[in-house]
Amino acid sequence: MAEPTQEETSRILLIDDEQNILRTFRYCLEDAGHRVRTASDAAQAEDIVQRDVFDLCFLDLRLGDTSGLDLLPKLRQYAPWMRVVIVTAHSSIDSALDAIRAGAVDYLVKPCSPEQLRMAATKQLRARRLEQRIEALEKQDCATTVAELDSESPSMNLVLQTLRQVADTDATVLILGESGTGKGLAARTIHNCSPRAKDNFVVVNCPSLSAELLESELFGHRKGAFTGAIENKLGRVDQAEGGTLFLDEVGDVPLSMQPKLLRFIQDREYERVGDPVTRRANVRIVAATNRDLGEMVRQNHFREDLLYRLNVITLAMPPLRERIEDLELLAERFLLRYAASYRRPARRFSSAARDAILAYPWPGNIRELQNVVERAVILCPAEQVELDLLSIAETPERKARPRIGDALSLEDVERSHIRAVIASSPSFEAAAATLGIDVSTLYRKRKEYGL
């Protein structure tokens, strides 16, 4: 006998008040390798569904004095993942269609042959397996994006802690930070780790659009609403329905557009350009900016009430120069990624290249580091990336790296030594142990030296 397929190892619940139907269906499905349980009335079915997990249910439309239509919503509540097929006689097909509108996935007309029953089961179980694979991929996406943000930096780990706490809520999140610090990756991670992950993550790039174009891009427009509007257009809000809308560089939204954005964030209501119909959206808002919104409010360039609506939860992404512990880790991660992507031989950095990476202040943050490493990997002819392949400037800091015996103050030597120890240690606590000081002292010195 052939080994059961994945569908043949599934769990099926049969609900019918006719014992001979239950017996026939059960034997047929068990012969195909399925695990089957039966229930002869609604109360028994509810009890079983609450105690066990099933992939598929065949539900008779008539259960004595009870209608399968009355039981279906309860089954959907107890086991929303379970696919329900209505079993009905020819005379009640209209009711079966009502059941499909109520959440059933298909109907089966009895009497039916064993082959028809097995085919119906196989079809729905394959659909269930596909749903499970998608769910697994979504969880993998969450784990992947969280891994991309993985850090040894205490300040970055505080950000990640907050991110994990808010991801499974619908709270509006404002992500602050310099260009290139990973604000977009943080926004996508919030989406991937949220209950909305199965729906779209939609980005609106605010700086690239005028007020009029931004309104159309966000909310859509009606044909003829303005010159060039030759057809009805859905906006980004429509595309993000059920998912997450990411407003990238929200600080650049024109002042004239801010009242409409405020209303949308506050009430989730909007109108398409040229269309008076008010619509409601089911989206989560995540916004990001590299601007000082508080200062913009003081200068009357940004609405204070809009800032309050955006600023429910704030994540402040630290610049790369404040994440010295992560420099080597990130550089090596990018090196291996691009070496695999471009099929290049590069596998490691020379000591001189590594020292230069640790000494450079990275004003362009992670994005600059990524670009520098990508270029070096592409041009590197060997396994080791040398210093001359790194397109980073010779900064005063690099030129002034102290050596024993140089005419330098103890403060300069201490600053450089602490920087190097932090960069080469696996954790902040390990760095403090190497230096022979406690963690609080290291934090104080780090702040004092601007490390």
Describe this structure in a few short sentences.
This protein has 451 residues and is of the alpha/beta class. It has 19 helices and 18 strands.
Topology:
Elements: E1 11-15, H1 19-31, E2 35-39, H2 42-51, E3 56-60, E4 62-63, E5 66-67, H3 68-78, E6 83-88, H4 93-101, E7 106-109, H5 114-148, H6 154-167, E8 173-176, H7 183-192, E9 201-205, H8 211-219, E10 220-221, E11 233-234, H9 236-239, E12 244-248, H10 258-267, E13 269-270, E14 279-280, E15 284-289, H11 293-298, H12 304-310, E16 313-316, H13 324-342, E17 348-349, H14 351-359, H15 365-379, E18 384-385, H16 396-399, H17 410-424, H18 428-435, H19 439-449
Parallel strand pairs: 1-2, 1-3, 3-6, 6-7, 8-15, 8-16, 9-12, 12-15, 17-18
Antiparallel strand pairs: 4-5, 10-11, 13-14
Helix pairs in contact: 2-3, 5-7, 6-7, 10-12, 13-15, 13-17, 17-18
Which regions have little confidence, pLDDT < 50, spanning 5+ residues? Answer: 1-8, 395-400
Fraction of residues in helices? Answer: 40-55%
Instruction: Round the mean pLDDT to the nearest integer and report it.
Output: 85
The tally of strands reads 18
